[in-house]
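As promised in the previous annual report, we have extended the structural survey to additional targets. Below is the entry for Arginyl tRNA synthetase N terminal domain-containing protein.
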Amino acid sequence: MTPDSSSQSGPEYSVRVIPEDLQTALARALATADAGLVAPGSAAVIDVRASARPDLGDWTTPVALRAAASAELRTRLAAHLCTELRALPEVADAVVSGPGFVNVTPTPAARARVICDIISAGARADTHSGAEQDGTTFRALVSASAREPAPGLRADGRGNDVDSGAVNALQRGHAAACRELRRAHRAGIPTTASDLATLAQPSETRMLTIVAGLPSALERSRRLGESEPLLTALLELGAVVETWLRRCPVTPTVDEDITVTHTSRLLALRAVIIVLAAGLRQLGASAPERI
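The corresponding structure token record, generated without further manual editing, is:
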């Protein structure tokens, strides 16, 4: 879906899966459906969201419900879409649930690519290079031009500032992540010899799914001229990160060796800090490293 365009120590992760990538793949799959499956002239919106049932997949879409020529054909169209998606190297599985929802599970390498893309975008922003070129990529969220809030995101659509309590919660979460980063550095955890595809604990995969959806949330906020989509996604990320740090320690205990798991989690932590800081800037708020 998305070719590898940056280097990262450790294994190569050639593709990623974010909602925009899946929307493109699903549009192509709809175009290859048998005659009569898709409603004539159908221009269904391909909405891809993080699944409320992670056991069924990271992502879910109701596009088959909207595009099928009839209610009786919904599950058949959904099955076709799943078959097409499973043929992609970045998709581990795609299954049908309910009346025709399509649920997608990326490969571990595809999840890992998301972290690489974020860290690469953060490096470009720090050097004031690689200006924003595509509103649906991490570069749009993290770029140096995003140091000022995007138009329309400072207010909630009713002329009110973004809820200060929500912003404070995000700032505390960002500071907590930075504190864990400092601990990891003091412990001497390197960022080399990592294998991001090993990040497979449920809280880790959920965190990576929410991170992968942030560019889409930013695009929705910009399109609607209100902060709610981005703020909701950021708050969900903050809550998941808190669970992740509790269940998947980045820093080993004093009697524990540093392993590839710790180096990989450190890179994931760096990516989380980058997107939380960028999200706060998009909302017109600061991203303190200490509170």
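Strands lie at 49-50, 59-61, 91-97, 101-106. Confidence is low (pLDDT under 50) at residues 2-10, 129-136, 155-160. These points will be discussed at the next consortium meeting with the crystallography subgroup.
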